[in-house]
Amino acid sequence: MNFLDGHLFPENQEPLVITAAPYGPEWIPSDFPEDIPVSMEAQVRKAVDCYEAGARVLHVHVRELDGRGSKRLSKFNELLAGIRQACPEMILQVGGSISFAPEGEGANAKWLSDDTRHMLAELDPKPDQVTVTVNTTQMNVLEHMETADIAGTSLGTPEGIRAYSEMVVPSTPSFVEEHIRRLSARGIQSAFQFYNLNSFETVERLIRRGVYKGPLVLNWVAISGGMDAPNIYNLANFVRALPDGAMVTVESSMRNVLPINMMGMAMGLHVRCGIEDNIWNQARTQKMSTVEQIRQLVRIAGEFGRPIATAQQAREILKIGVFYDTVEETLLANGFAPNARGRQQGFLRKAA
Question: The pTM is what?
Fold first, then answer.
């Protein structure tokens, strides 16, 4: 991406799109009973509250009545239908993991099979986006957390530490290509989760080969443990490699969330918050609900002079429902250099 003179001025930036992640499948209700919805009615209400606070994208997981993260597609269908009715303007982004919460006591937190995740393309009503992970990697979500971050929670137990420190994201080439094809066929946008430069480079190659023909909408996931660490060097190195047409949301965990969001906000990027990422204020003196985190970002964006995107603006910024007919059109729309004739990979200069 190019950052020219004036890029830090709000009049030269897009309105801010806030993604809310309020369902937090890694937690159990007793970890934060004031802000973890369990009944279907409460989960729908949480989506409405997030929208009214200023979020325009909702990262969706769903819970069973016993409070555990659900792995049933029927429950996702029920929640999506409820949110569509109660909050029709919210952009719905289903988490591609479905739920990585352990299925029982002593079980590891793990992602479901390729076949099960492919079924996300069949959800009804269909979501606007499904998150797509790229390249198999370790996902030790606890690696950069401090002991005090998880003290007194289910993550702080020996079972929780074992379950979540050993988690792996399975995302092989055959899975990614088939998943993208199925989502695109249903008109569902692939919201890419990039952990570092190599995952972005893999998607660029998929675009150049014609596997994906849509907007490059992505999260930079800086949670360590196999993914980028949350610091300015990693962020700068990452965005420098991206084409100018990319829509970038920054994401981190625990008390790194707010400073990373402030960096992203200042640079004209977009932000994500919610209890799936963090449950604390910056002093770690009390827990913060997802709605409180959204309101905090709205307030800070106001200080920056950067307006919050309306629902329609958010859909236009994310290019929801947009797909392209050819490789050449996809490369051009996203700001990539064209493919070199007779070669799969591009070259360093754009065409005149």
Answer: 0.94
